[in-house]
Amino acid sequence: MIFVTIGTQLPFDRLIKIIDELAPQLNEEVIAQVYQCGFTPKNIKTVDFLAPDEFNTLFDKARLIVSHAGMGTILSALQKDKPIIVFPRIAALGEHRNEHQLATARKFKELGTVNVAMNEDELTSMLLDGNQTTLQHIGNSASSSLIQSIQAFIDE
Amino acid sequence: MKKVMAVASIGGHWIQLLRIARPMEGHYEMVYVSTHPKCATMVEGQKYCLTTDFSRSDAWKLVPAFLKAIKTIRKEKPDAIITTGAAPGLVYLLVGKLFGRKTIWIDSIANAEHLSASGRMASWFASRTYTQWEDLATGKIQYAGNVFGNTL
Fold first, then answer.
1. How close, in Å, is residue B96 to chain A by CA atoms?
2. N or C: which end of chain A has fewer CB within 10 A?
3. How many CB pairs under 8 A join A and B?
4. Is the ipTM value over 0.90, yes or no?
């Protein structure tokens, strides 16, 4: 199963449309978490807001995650060794308030943190290929140097 | 034992906060604050308080969020308040500052090219502001690591 997630704050119809049009060629169930979707997807199953526990159930069940460049999803995928393709929102297309998703996606692509598709063509070919793997693993906490720095300041 | 209030909106901010705050549970009495009741399930056994969510698109909710922050901080009396954002976290830092608490802003790792607008505002008054990208550190904005751990 492929789980598509776009967060809970803003619609992202461009991504949902690409996935919906491609779904018949994927031979795999696709479940997408949508938000105020401006059209009715025909080929994929959609769900609205998911509470954290429901989100985790779908996330764990999925073979592959396709996501906007949201940090919660990226961190969860890296920690759970779940293959992920990140497709950033573009503020110039009205998909976010500023271009931080584009900037973050570029940075993660450069660092080899996660699979990143910058446009429809890249996303389509990645999904048709379907062999994305995890590129990095992270543990369950932030850098010890960051935690120690904060604690030292609180203890002052 | 000192008391630390850890605040973040649901979603990526909350996930980042937990990666920083959960390892502190042995050192401090923690009070978690987020914007959805279900977030409590991710910090079972710890104190959890709900607050009002808002962003620039529904900025009028700043008023109830501000009042809620005053009430929660007066009741819990934390020694320090830490947040990874977004707008509700900024409100808690501001109220914490008014009550004379230590206030710490950790800007989201999603801000790879420049500090978030909320982060810039926080840096005007917070006791300490961190970025998670080394090249964004300045004299005032500190870098000491990030939520990925030691891999990035």
1. 14
2. C
3. 138
4. yes
| Separation between Cα atoms, residue A75 and residue A152, nearest integer Å | 26
Q: With an 8 Å Cβ cutoff, is B120 touching chain A?
A: no
pLDDT band at residue B9 under the 50/70/90 scheme: very high
**How far apart, in whole angstroms, are the C-alpha atoms of residue A59 and residue A53?**
10
Phi–psi pair at B47, nearest 5 degrees: -70, 135
Arithmetic mean of pLDDT, A84-98 = 96
- Identify all chain A residues contacting B148, using CB atoms and an 8 Å cutoff: 75, 78, 113, 138, 142-143
Indicate yes or no: pTM above 0.90.
yes
Interface test with A, best of B16, B19, B102, B127 (most A CBs within 10 A): B19
Is the domain covering A2-155 a CATH 3.40.50.2000 domain?
A: yes
Residue corresponding to tokens 């393709």: A85
Q: Chain A within 8 Å of B4 (Cβ-Cβ)? A: yes
Domains and CATH numbers, chain B: 3-143 (3.40.50.2000)
Confidence at residue A92, expressed as pLDDT on a 0 to 100 scale: 97
A56 touches chain B (CB under 8 A): no
Residue A39: both structure tokens together = 């059209």
pLDDT at B151 over 80: no
DSSP A54: H
